[in-house]
Predict the structure.
Amino acid sequence: MAYPGHLLLLLALISSLSTIPSAISQSCSAARSLPFANAISLYSNCVDLSTLGASLHYTYDPTNSTLSLSYVATAPSSSGWISWALNPNPNPAEAGMIGAQAVIAFKDGTGAVVAKTYNVTAYGSVTESPISYETWDRTAEVATGGIMRLSAKFKVGADAVAKGLNQVWQVGGSVADGVPQMHELKEGNKNAKGVLDVVSGTTTSGGSGEGARTKRKNIHGILNAVSWGIMFPFGIIIARYLRTFPSADPAWFYLHVFCQFSAYVIGVAGWATGLKLGAESKGIVYYYHRNIGIVVFALATLQIFALLLRPKKDHKYRFYWNVYHHGLGYLIVVLGIVNVFKGINILQPDNKWKHGYIIAIAVLGGVAVLLELVTWGVVLRRKSSRSTKPYGNHSNGQARQPL
Ligand SMILES: *[C@@H]1O[C@H](CO)[C@@H](O)[C@H](O)[C@H]1NC(C)=O
Ligand SMILES: *[C@@H]1O[C@H](CO)[C@@H](O)[C@H](O)[C@H]1NC(C)=O
């Protein structure tokens, strides 16, 4: 039932899903050449932050434990915001957005660029409020477009400096009625935190638990991409095209069952890792990715049980069973592939992973289009030589429509 047109549509859909804009990097060196009012090079240190292409320029004065800093980053839009924060939570793994004592820079209603303080207590919305650090000389400026600089002085305390400061940074795309709005939830946004050692001038990213979580996310991604994204479509190709050849009967059937069942087992493992990641992700829910994942799993489970209810080849209901089984199969493949791309957009791995997956899918799609043409050629030739009725009671040895 999948004509080449459907496959081309699928390929077009995939290529449209695969265009992700990438952030412009404001590394230490790039930031120094920006047209800011006060030279940023006057700070004695600078660290390139591990995500969002941002950098932190600072001077630490140990005589009064004061940190003077400028944070430079690119907001996703010219009406966006940038933010830098300290989180006094003693456990670096828990020192994320919640509890952050933040300074947020943005253009207010009059067009003036302001830098205000926020005690961040919940995901989603923020309210201007005093913070637990004494801050002063808070200013902000816009270089060009979304490139912004936030400057402030923080009284940090010598003990905290000795332990390492938990810093959190962020960028967001919009401000409504003077209130910075929720930022995106890409990996780069979520991992925008780390421990800053102002004395040695180094920054380490993430808490201790973060590395293990990233590893689990990668495993989740690989299991699901291989299962729903590659093996399921491959199993469909086997069923759809091998059965045209009488000599491949019943081998195609066992191959198909073997391939889909292995894909299902791997897919269930990937699905379970996804559930665990979802349960751990407090406050951040990827609704589309999660819901598509649940639907795909449910449909695939139904598909496995459909095998048990399969009527005999010449049973009058077999035609309807076939329509149901094939329809569900194509739906699973489309949703599976869409969800792999949604997952890639969330995880933001190196581009080579995404390109690798696009190539794998394109090869499968190309093979399918080619086999589709070959199959119809074979079927039409047999039909003209034996004038077999399409969708008729075909027994072994006769031409089959690739339905
Ligand atoms: C700490 O020292 C810096 C630089 O000498 C100065 O600008 C700042 O005002 C001082 N802060 C306090 C709280 O004394
Ligand atoms: C920030 O919010 C928390 C939770 O509501 C509160 O316990 C804390 O005192 C607040 N900090 C400041 C400086 O207001």
